[in-house]
Structures are given as structure tokens and as C-alpha cells.
Amino acid sequence: MGVLKRFEQRLEGLVNGTFAKVFKSEVQPVEIAGALQRECDNNATIWNRERTVVPNDFIVELSAGDYERLSPYSGQLGDELAGLVRDYAKQQRYSFMGPIKVHLEKAEDLDTGLYRVRSRTLAASTSQPQPERSQQGGGGYGYPPVAAPPMPAGPPPGAPGRRPAASGPGPVPPGGAPKRHWIEINGTRHQISRPTLVLGRSTEADVRIDDPGVSRRHCEIRTGTPSTIQDLGSTNGIVVDGQHTTRATLRDGSRIVVGSTTIIYRQAEG
Prior knowledge:
The chain has 270 residues and is of the alpha+beta class. The protein is built from four helices and 18 strands.
């Protein structure tokens, strides 16, 4: 069972208490949990062969309305989210410089249902944190981000390099750099760092899309030469560049529609 699914089940076990009010918020805790996982992946830094360090101090910025609903339970929710980060790090063999903390903050510039995640690596023995990094999110990806999430910063001095993607970027084609692949959903970029990427409504999907017209495991993008998309037996199927299909070749700029959500596929050299 995946880390996100276990987290969701733990929260469901608290529904009988006053914590059930959390689920009335436009921002769902499982969406924040997924954003924290991505924040770890995007900022994982290799220190040596045995150690890959990820951020341990997280700030989740919420709209005024969502903050008011969630803040009475911020301590319990923060503990649950910190536990999820700890479980995910153990699964990925990540390590931390200090204790894991997740804080909620109010952001006046965010509308209901939108959130931002900022993170930093904060050592237990020092008050000098590394620079913050951030990503934006929102339930069902229905948000207008200010800009695409930043690419990970370079490794710290003395570190041999940044942790490679889960399956690596693939072989370098003759005479050129490897291709980068990503998708954009309402302006937000999701890097494709594995040979396959599953999109769907399930918490087990690589990219979760909170759309009632999307199946739990809706479709799969396969990077290659060329890259393709495959329907996984979804209820409503997929539309690629205006054509309803079960399988299609993808090019840079291809428009994919699943349910009522539009996804732009992107690829570039280097």
C-alpha cells in the first residue's frame, strides 16, 4: 500500500471526532500530502553515496477561508503530514538534517482552494537554514499559479551532485543531450522522471487529478522515441489533439483532455 493511501486511511480514522471538520475545507489534506512528497523529490540533494538529503521544514500557505477552517486542527494535521513525509522518506531512502515540521500559514493573495508549499533544509544544530523553495497547488489543479515551480537548485558545496530521477533521464542520444519531458496542468509543470507516468483520480496515480470525469487510473504517458499515451480502460477515454482515441503519439505541445481537465505535453532537448 502506498504512503499516500495509508495517510488517507489514517485521516479517515479520525473522522468520527471534531477533526472531521477538516474535510469540509476546499483544500483536502491528501492534496497537501502529495505536494509535500513532490517537494521532497524536487529538492533531494546527494551529499554522499549513503546520504540523500531532503527538506525537513515545510510551510503550507492557505487562503484566508481555508486557513480559518484548518487552523484549529493545525497541530494534529501538522503531525500527520510530518508522519507522511517521514514514511515517504523511509521508502525513498531520503534523510533529514533535523526534525520534520509542517506549519500552516495564511496567505491573503490566495483564493479558496489554492495553496502554496515552501520548504527548507533546517539543521538541528544551527539556525541558518538553506534557501526556501516553493511550489503551488490546489484541489483539482484549479488554480492560477504565479509561475511554474522552480527547478531544483544546484547541490551544496562539496556535494557530488543532485539525486538522479527515479529511473534516470535515459541514454544520451548520439550527438545530443537527453530529452526532458513534462506535462502542464493549468500552468503548473510536472516533470516526468520515469519511463511511464500514470494519471488518474486515485492517490496511487503518479499525478492525481481531482476531476469526477477522470478514472482512478485513467491513462499512462510513456516517454520514448516517440513518446505515447495509452488509455488504461478509463470510463470516459482520452482526447489527444482533438481526436478521441485509446492510444496516440505525443509531440511537444500535444493537448490531452481527460474528463474536463486539459493537459499539455512538453518535451525539449537537454
